[in-house]
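FAQ: What does the model actually see?

It sees only this:
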Amino acid sequence: MLEIKNVYKTFNAGTINEKRALNGLNLKLNEEDFVTVIGGNGAGKSTMLNMIAGVYPVDSGSIFVDGVDVTRLSEHKRAKYLGRVFQDPMMGTAADMWIEENLALASRRGQSRTLRWALNNQERKEFKVQLAELGLGLEDRLSTKVGLLSGGQRQALTLLMATLKRPKLLLLDEHTAALDPKTAETVLGLSDKFIEEEHLTAMMVTHNMRDAIAHGNRLIMMNDGKVILDISGEEKKKLTVEDLLQAFNKISGSEFANDRVLLSK
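And it is asked to produce this:
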């Protein structure tokens, strides 16, 4: 479903601030893989997601989604293949629009638009059913502006919007990092539910090692812009945080020194 072939990306090339973010990155995701991604600061995790989404062009290499070469496609042309939830709950929705208007936009992702009424009663009924699955009471607030929702409600809505059209690939970029622990647990539970029920292929970047181990069928660790560890199946189920730290130290030849990750062990 996803294939990244030998991708390189350097920011501010030729300047004192030059930073190689991706360093010959190679990765394949099979259909219905749910991969968690972990690594230290500057390992290339978010850059990888941005390259898949088309936020930045690659310097070299190629990216395929479901067999389609998207390497040179602009960000908006890739939108029909992808769903994405960001770390900041404010980024995935339009604050000044109603909940139903945000859902209407999401339901038309990748389609051409025409001059007609944006919503009909059948769609409103469907939106109510879908919102009820979140368990947050939003099904009775279709005409509430999204900017009035809490961070957790907004992130749950963004997750629903991202999965509404069953994307080829769902990208979760530290999507619970800005939430309190209880709300983060709720959103992670919803993520698992949507991914399983819709048989989605997903990639979740996280700074929480326990979450990386507990969710998904596969875990990869990044360092210096490439994958240094790839664990799946029964081996992943038996993992501990200590196993991950030892593996990192052994493979990278250095000690894991990301305070944010270590504090969330």
